[in-house]
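Hi everyone,

Forwarding the result from last night's run.
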Amino acid sequence: MKKLTKGQHLILLLLLSQCYVTISDAHTATQVERYTSIESKPTLGQLDLLEQIMQIHFSQKIQTIGQAIDHVLRPTGYSLIPTHTLHPKVQYLLLKPLPLVDRELGPMRLNEALRVIVGPAFDVLHDPLHRLISFKVRSEYLISEDDNE
C-alpha cells in the first residue's frame, strides 16, 4: 500500500468531510422534484400556533372587534374564552366597531394580528394547553376598578 503525501491526505480529509455534510443534510431535506428539495421539519407556525402567518380580509359582515377576533381565530385552533369571564373593559372593547384601517391585515403572525385588532391598551394572553385566547387590560390603562366602561 502506497503512503499518502500531506497534500493527498488533506484532499482525502476534505472529501470525507463533504460526504459527512451531505449525509447529515439528507436527514433534514426531502427531494420533491428533480432539482428541488424542502426541509423536513415543522414550520415555526406549526410548533407555536400563535406564530403562524396570516393574511386577513374582513368582509362587510364583520362589524365589531369581537367578530373580527372570532373570524381570525376560527382557522387557527384557538378560540376566545367565554365573553362573560373577560374583564368588563375587554367586553366593552369587543362590542366596538372594527376600524376601517384594520379590515386588511397581513401577512403577519397571529399574535401580531390580535395585538393590532385590540390595540395598545390590551395584552394578548393564551393558554396553549386548552388553546384559549384572552386579553388583559394593561395596568397603565386601568385608572380605577370602579369605571363603568
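The chain has a mean pLDDT of 84.

Cheers,
N.
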